[in-house]
Amino acid sequence: MVQSKISGVINFVLIFTLLIGLVGRVSAHGILLSPIPRLPYGHNGTEVIANVSNPTKEFPCGLAGDSPGPVTIYKPGEKILVAYNRTITHGGDCLMQMSRYGSKYDKDFKTFENLGTCGMEKGLFTAFVMVPHEECDNDDCVMRFRWDDNVGNNYLYCANVRIKKYADCWESKKRRSIGASRRSLKN
Ligand SMILES: *[C@@H]1O[C@H](CO)[C@@H](O)[C@H](O)[C@H]1NC(C)=O
Ligand SMILES: *[C@@H]1O[C@H](CO)[C@@H](O)[C@H](O)[C@H]1NC(C)=O
Ligand SMILES: *[C@@H]1O[C@H](CO)[C@@H](O)[C@H](O)[C@H]1NC(C)=O
């Protein structure tokens, strides 16, 4: 409850900050805009965003660590937008990764898409990537954007995700119970 309230506030702050263009003035190196990442807790949104835009050595999830964030639900194999805004120019590949075992260990993050050299220009980098086909439907499903630039900096953003065929279990439960009541009407 508290977590979703906090992440709601932070999301609002993130969107608001982006809209009024503060990020450009305060951010150091770049920030992931989509999928919406975890962000550290803090009352000053400008400062939070400035902090997470910096390079980090905090593996696996950067400064945000285990902080709350929204849960984004995807369908297996769906094409999703990745958007990363850069205020520096460096080489090095950007990777999309997925952990099915939470965000405690770096080794649990496996690359499912290499976005190639994504940092050669300033401004918005966008790409559509395919979500893995295997479902993942629990608290341990974490998607990560990782950029290791060519001057030794690491950028790490974790997003809480679910990958599942049906939007929620209520939907499939409802379908089952409708089927059951049809059957019981027949009998
Ligand atoms: C994106 O990056 C550009 C170029 O560095 C910067 O001018 C702009 O303010 C940034 N915008 C956002 C929304 O981060
Ligand atoms: C941002 O980072 C600075 C320097 O490490 C720290 O003092 C400050 O508390 C951080 N602010 C937030 C909101 O995380
Ligand atoms: C938030 O942090 C920024 C950057 O450190 C600072 O300029 C601004 O005054 C702070 N805002 C508030 C309300 O504390």
Question: Which key features would you list for this structure?
Answer:
single chain, 187 residues, alpha+beta, Immunoglobulin-like, 3-stranded antiparallel β-sheet, 26% helix, 30% strand, disordered N terminus, binds 2-acetamido-2-deoxy-beta-D-glucopyranose, Chitin-binding type-4 domain-containing protein, signal
Number of strands: 8
Q: Helix proportion of residues, in percent?
A: 25-40%
Tally of helical runs = 4
CATH class: Mainly Beta
Span of the ends, CA to CA? 44 Å
Order of helices and strands: HHEHEEEEEEEH
Q: In CATH terms, what is the fold-level topology?
A: Immunoglobulin-like
Mean pLDDT figure:
85
Looking across the biggest beta sheet, what order are the strands in? 2-8-7-4-5
Q: State Rg.
A: 19 Å
Shape: elongated
Low-confidence region ranges: 1-6
Find the structural class using helix and strand composition.
alpha+beta
Q: Assign the CATH architecture.
A: Sandwich
What's the CATH superfamily, by name? Macroglobulin (MG2) domain
Small ligands present: 2-acetamido-2-deoxy-beta-D-glucopyranose
Bin the strand percentage: 25-35%
Count of the separate structural domains: 1
Could you describe the 3D structure shown?
There is one protein chain. The protein has 187 residues and is an alpha+beta fold. It has a single domain (2-186), classed as Sandwich (Immunoglobulin-like), CATH 2.60.40. It is 26% helix and 30% strand. It contains four helices and eight strands; from the N terminus they run H-H-E-H-E-E-E-E-E-E-E-H. A five-stranded mixed sheet has the order 2-8-7-4-5, with no helix packed on it. Strands 1-3-6 form a three-stranded antiparallel sheet, with no helix packed on it. A hairpin with a 5-residue loop joins strand 7 (142-148) and strand 8. Bound molecules: 2-acetamido-2-deoxy-beta-D-glucopyranose (3 copies). Residues 18, 21, 23-24, 27, 31, 85, 87, 122-123 line the site of one 2-acetamido-2-deoxy-beta-D-glucopyranose (NAG). This is Chitin-binding type-4 domain-containing protein. Keywords: Signal. Residues 1-28 form the signal peptide.
